[in-house]
Amino acid sequence: MRQVLLLSLLLMFVFPGQNSTTSPEGSSLTVLSFKWYRSHQTVEPLDETTTVPPVRAVIPANKNFERNVRANAPAGARDPNDDTIDGRSAALEKSVQDSRAAQTKPVDGYAYRVKVQNRSSKAIEIVFFEYQFIDPSTPANMARRQFLCGVNMKPDKEKELQAFSISGPSDVVSVGSLAKKSLFQEKAVINRVEYADGSIWQRKDWNFSEIRLTYARAVATPWASEMCRSL
Fold it and tell me: How far apart, in whole angstroms, are the C-alpha atoms of residue 143 and residue 155?
């Protein structure tokens, strides 16, 4: 499914309006609830290379009789293959690869959760949504956190969109006031919905060109287990 999503996303970036129809009616994807909270995410390094161990040399210890004897050896007995040139080379290569491997580390940020329901008769594949933080005293002062999600929602089904971002509502209120959520208003908005049949619904006051660059960055690397990516 991830491969299909990535191909669909790339095609949309190259040909954003080709072979699709846009519905002028309201979105059939309804927001049921939404929330955000402080969180952290562990970033896994990409495994871009695969080390293939060398073929072991044929030594006497690998012949049938000696191999059967070794199978009955006590636990912890040293494997004779480890003392061969190939065995020592493999051990050395593993040490080098381990020293070069990027280490995982948690990244502090914010989790965004939006529960939605597909009230159409068509399956949904891709969703663009945003989480808004609005200053009640100055409504024009609004922070928008936008996300791209790959979903597989069948008709009349519900799903919680799960997103992570290093950006929170700090553009609206001070970081020290984040615990007092009454200082700002929150709203989750669906910007665009792409259906499995190729049709598209898009919010009339939302423009895809606004996120074109961040969209390109979001689809530039393979998707792992995440559902949504920040735009």
Answer: 32
